Amino acid sequence: MRKNLSIESLRGLAAILMAAGHVIGSDATRGMTVGDDSGWRLFYLLLEDVRMPLFAALSGFVYAYRPIDDGGDYGRMVWGKVRRLLVPLITVGTLFVAVQSIIPDTNAASTGDFLRLYVFGVGHFWFLQAIFLVFLLVGVLDLLGVLDRPRYWMVITAAAVLLAIFVRVPEPVDFFSISGAIALLPFFLLGYGAHRFISNPPRVRLVAVVAVAFVVFYAVRALEIVGVVDISLQALLADRVLVGFAAVSLLLLLRDRIRLKPLAWLGQFAFAIYLLHVFGSAAARIVLSRLGIDNDFVVFAVCMLFALAIPTVFEMTLGRIGWISWAFLGQKPYRPRPRQPLPAPDPDTESPSSAIRPVRSRR
Description:
Layout: H1 5-24, H2 39-47, H3 51-63, H4 71-102, H5 113-119, H6 126-143, H7 150-166, H8 178-196, H9 204-225, H10 233-253, H11 261-267, H12 270-290, H13 296-316, H14 322-329
């Protein structure tokens, strides 16, 4: 079955935004080690509330093609996510910590990070733990049938938004990235609902309302980042969640306007890019440093190229080998897709993954 070009394009966009954030670095000691007062830091912060929420929403959108019907479905889903998410957490995550512990100039980790990787999450691998917990919870909600109706879905999604705003998990007890799961849950549910309950193309009025909300919330966030306004911590947390919710909603509503073959092609490698981009960007950064090249624009461009290219080449070459693909990517071996003509916009009757079957309606 053909891929959904719109969703694949958004996956490609999400991969680019995620890689860009990690190339720049979350603070002045990571990535490009740019100062907190630089334009690069501003760029990082302005996209911070969109990158991983978009990944979570796309996961929810894809999951909604085949929601859980019974206990057997739930068991198969859990096993599938163990293989897809937790196996790469162990293999790629262990390799990541080992490389950081051994190789200089890689934002070095300590041996204690091996334990933290499996219990709390290290680096970008927190997402694997968090989204695994989200799948477990949403699967249970589907078993209970509480996501079958739009009204119930809206209530639960609103509750998830409030949970993300007001509940903070103390770091010492943040086992298996529970806080990350709380942060991702509203966006996963947003993607789920966008697939099942929102018409495509959407109503113009709905798009307009979401666009206005995004502009308002994003303006507050931008003014806070540059220090023009000072708001309370709770208000800031609320605004950040709402920025992400409005931005991702807008992307999902306008997904048929974002149907670009280059992005869609890259989107098929989004998970490999997520897992392996740090190896490409770190290698490029080290080589550039040894060559004495420190121009930020050059460093960013080269590191982005390697962050996207290395995982893509890995999947297209070594990813063809069964045990390597299962062990490091948690998926079937790579097989090139046959070329297809650009399909017309479609009201979500295409599957975004050849491994996902159409929903078996329970209504």
